[in-house]
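Contributing: when you submit paired examples, paste them exactly as shown. First protein:
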Amino acid sequence: MTPIVAIVGRPNVGKSTLFNRLLGKRVAIVSDIPGTTRDRIFADGVIEGRPFTLVDTGGLEPEPSTAIAARVRSQAEMAIEEADIIIFLLDVTDGLIPADIEIAERLRRSNKPVIAAVNKTDNENLEAGTGEFYRLGIDRVIPISALHGRGIANLREALALLIPRVMTTEKLDDKAEIPKLAIVGRPGVGKSTLLNRILGRERVIVGDSPGTTRDAVNTVLRYQKQDVMLIDTGGLRRRGRIEAGIEYYSVIRALRAISQCHVALLTIDASKLVTAQDIHVARYVVEARKGVIVVANKWDLVPEERREEYRRSIEQRFKFLAFAPIIFASALTGYGVSKVMATAIDVCRQRSTKLPDETVSAIIMKAYTEHPPLRRGTGSLEVYDAHQEGINPPTFIIQVNEPELVHFSYRRYLENSLRRFFAFTGTPLAMIFRKSSRKTSRGVRQV
C-alpha cells in the first residue's frame, strides 16, 4: 500500500501552502482566512522514486468554538489515525504556544513517525527562532518556508528516509483508468450526504448550510470487485454569482472534477423542483461530454400526492438530457441510493463501447436514405459514410460534402438513429461532420 503522509497543525499555519509546494502544483485552496481547508484533501506524489499519498487537513483547535470547527477537528483526528507519517506544521512567527504542545501530545500517543516543520522561516533571523520547538520532544525539526520554498528540499529528504521504496510495476497514474464519478450540483442539494451514504460512513463534512464543501474530495472504494473513485465537489453557481476568493477556486476545482470524471452524478433538490442553476450545471457536464445521471435527491420531502407532478416537471426541465437516467432518491434515508452506483457503472460501460465501422456506416446511411435532409438555400447536404473514431465519449465521424449544411435537427436525427441501435445510456455523443470529396455514397448495408 502507498504510505499516507498527513499534514496537521493549528489553523492558518500554512498547511495547504505546504501541501501544494510538496506536490509541485496547486491542488488545495489557499487563502489568508483561517480554516479554509475543512475536509481532508488527498493527492498522490513521489519523492526520490518513492510514491506516497499526501493529505491536507483542516486546523486542529484544542477547544473548537463552533460546530463546524468541531467537525473539522474530527476530520483531522481521522487523518492522524489513517496516516503512516505525520508532518506537524508550526508557525515560527507565533512561537511555541500551548495549543502546539497539546497537539504534540496527541501525535505522541499515535505512535506514528512525526516531522516537525516550522513554517514561515523566510530568512536566517526567523530560522534562529526554531530552537524553542525542540521542547516538543520531536527528533526531526526542520525550518521551512512553504510560500518561498526555503528548506523544502530538507523536508523532502527527511520524508524520503521514512517512506519505504515500493517495488511495484503499478504506476501512480493507474487510477486514471478506474471509473471516476463526480458528484456535482448547486450548493445545498445534499452532495456530501450522498457521498457519505454511498460509502456508509462520514467521509466529508455535512452541514446544514449550503457551501460546506469547498474542495473536490476524492475517495476510492471497492464496488463489485473493481475500484471506483468518487469525487465530492463544492456547489456550482452561475458565473455571475460566483464570489471572489475561496468560492472562485472552489468552482474551478468543481469544473476540473467534471473535466476529469467519466460520469457526473448531477444532484438536485427534488423538493424544490428544477432551478435555473441546476440547468446551468447540467450544461457544464454536457459541454464537457461527460456521462450524466440525474439524482433527484430529498425525494422523501416530496408529498406522496405530488410526486407524479414533480416527476413530470423534472423530466420536462431536463428534456435536453433525454439520454440520462433519472434516479429519485433520498441520501438521508438511503432510498434509491443503491441504484446510483449500479447505474453509474453501466453508464461507464456504455461510454466505453466501440461499434464496428460497418455497423455505424449502415445505421447512418440507412437513416440518410430513408430521410434525406431538407435542402437549405442553394446547397444540399450529402452524407457519404460514417464510423466510430473513439470512446469516452463515443465519437462518430460522418463524412459529408459540406459540414456547414448540417442543421442541428438533422444532427439530432442521426444521433437518435444510433441510439435506437445502441442506447449509449447516460452519455452525450460526439458527432463530427467532416468534409469529404467523395461524390457518391456507399450502398446501404443491413443492420
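Second protein:
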Amino acid sequence: MEQDSGIRLDVLRVDGGTVNKHLLMQFEADILNREVVMPAIQETTALGAGYAAGLAVGFFSSVEALRGHWQAEKTWRPAMDEKRREQMYRQWKKAVTRTFDWEE
C-alpha cells in the first residue's frame, strides 16, 4: 500500500470478524512492523451505512464530527525482531509463488 500510494502507513486500523483472532492481529503487527488497532465497534460496514444516512439527512453535521465517535478498543504492537520478520516474509513470498498457475 505504501508503494502504491506513496504514503507511509503508521497504523493499520482493522475491523470485521477476523479482529477477534488476536494471534492473527499480533502477527499482522509483527510482519508489518506497525501498530494494528481495533475499534470499539468492530462491524464498521453497518456503522458506515448508518453514518452515511445520518450525513444525508443532516443528523450529523460533517465527516469531521463523525471522527470524534471513533475509539480504539485494542492495539497490537510489533514485537518481532527484524531478522525474524525478514525470514518470515521471505517464506511467505516463497509460499505465494508456489501457488502460481495452480489451476488452468
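If you have annotations for the second protein, write them as plain sentences, like these:
The chain has a mean pLDDT of 92.
The radius of gyration is 18 Å.
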